[in-house]
């Protein structure tokens, strides 16, 4: 009986020593729990990226201070900290507030030298004056006149052979040849008229290109064009040129119907370029001074319907 009590005390002493040698730490329990809900491989990762590279990537995206990681002593604690950072949603970036005082901005623009105005990135110091003027005065301004819309669509089709600068320099010649781009007059042009235009060396348009512009009349061109955007300009707020699309679903729909109606050189890219020029879609970059002005024109209380 005495021996059994001694053995019991000895066994209890051994158990206490084992518990002291191998405690179950709270951090280990947390590690197992994290592995269950977010398996990032706390023990061993099969990814080609090391833990240190993953850690630096996480900090660059979600944190501005890396000193907090040094608060954890063991590597296991650092891994747990990384897991918690990856689980947490990234901080939302605050966008620059849109200017509210339009009158004040207009006054500021009026006081700036035109050469120093911030424009879209595709306008450079080497851009021709006629192209800069087109950007500043026409591109992105909502157009509702039948003749103006027809002219812009015809010039957009010429982008297949020329750039905007080359087209704009011959703009007056095109207007004279196509009767001011009056849709009803152009629709009545015959073979002789087409031959005369194509033989004009100053215009430099092949007969096939001229025939692409001469199409039959079908009522109000403006109502037809604006119906694709519900008679309301599409206002975009792109920050970088790479964000501006070359085509859009609305341009694709318009392109298909124009082709059915006899138009040529009206693919989705050409039509989207036309929509940008005619102000059906506002694609000036947000830091371009014309973006605010064109948005103001697009949001006017009156619209052509």
TrEMBL record:
GO biological process, alphabetically ordered: base-excision repair
Taxonomy of the source species: Eukaryota, Viridiplantae, Streptophyta, Embryophyta, Tracheophyta
The organism's place on the tree of life at top rank: Eukaryota
Molecular-function annotations in GO: DNA-3-methyladenine glycosylase activity; metal ion binding
Gene3D superfamilies: Hypothetical protein, domain 2
UniProt-annotated binding residues for Zn(2+): 120, 135, 284, 288
Protein known as: Methyladenine glycosylase
Region of interest called Disordered, as start-end residue ranges on this chain: 1-27
PANTHER family reported for this sequence: DNA GLYCOSYLASE SUPERFAMILY PROTEIN, OS04G0501200 PROTEIN
Keyword terms of this UniProt record: Metal-binding, Zinc
């Amino acid at each position: 009986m005495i021996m059994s009590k001694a053995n019991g005390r000895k066994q209890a002493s051994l158990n206490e020593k084992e518990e002291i040698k191998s405690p179950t730490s709270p951090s280990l329990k947390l590690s197992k729990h994290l592995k269950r809900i977010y398996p990032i491989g706390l023990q061993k990762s099969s990814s080609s990226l090391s833990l240190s590279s993953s850690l630096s990537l996480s900090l660059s995206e979600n944190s501005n201070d890396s000193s907090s990681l040094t608060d954890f002593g063991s590597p296991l604690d650092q891994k747990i900290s990384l897991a918690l950072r990856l689980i947490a949603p990234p901080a939302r970036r605050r966008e620059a507030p849109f200017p509210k005082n339009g009158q004040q901005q207009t006054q500021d623009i009026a006081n700036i030298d035109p050469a120093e105005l911030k424009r879209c990135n595709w306008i450079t110091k080497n851009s021709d004056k006629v192209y800069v003027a087109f950007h500043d005065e026409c591109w992105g301004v909502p157009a509702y006149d039948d003749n103006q819309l027809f002219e812009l669509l015809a010039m957009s089709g010429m982008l297949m052979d020329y750039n905007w600068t080359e087209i704009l320099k011959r703009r007056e010649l095109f207007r004279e040849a196509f009767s001011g781009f009056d849709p009803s007059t152009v629709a009545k042009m015959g073979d002789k008229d087409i031959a005369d235009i194509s033989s004009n060396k100053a215009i430099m348009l092949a007969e096939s290109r001229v025939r692409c512009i001469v199409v039959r009349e079908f009522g109000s061109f403006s109502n037809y064009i604006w119906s694709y955007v519900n008679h309301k300009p599409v206002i975009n707020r792109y920050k970088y040129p790479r964000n501006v699309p070359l085509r859009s679903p609305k341009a694709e729909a318009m392109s298909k119907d124009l082709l059915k109606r006899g138009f040529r050189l009206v693919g989705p890219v050409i039509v989207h370029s036309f929509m940008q020029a005619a102000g059906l879609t506002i694609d000036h970059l947000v830091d371009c001074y014309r973006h605010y002005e064109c948005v103001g024109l697009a949001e006017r209380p009156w619209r052509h319907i």
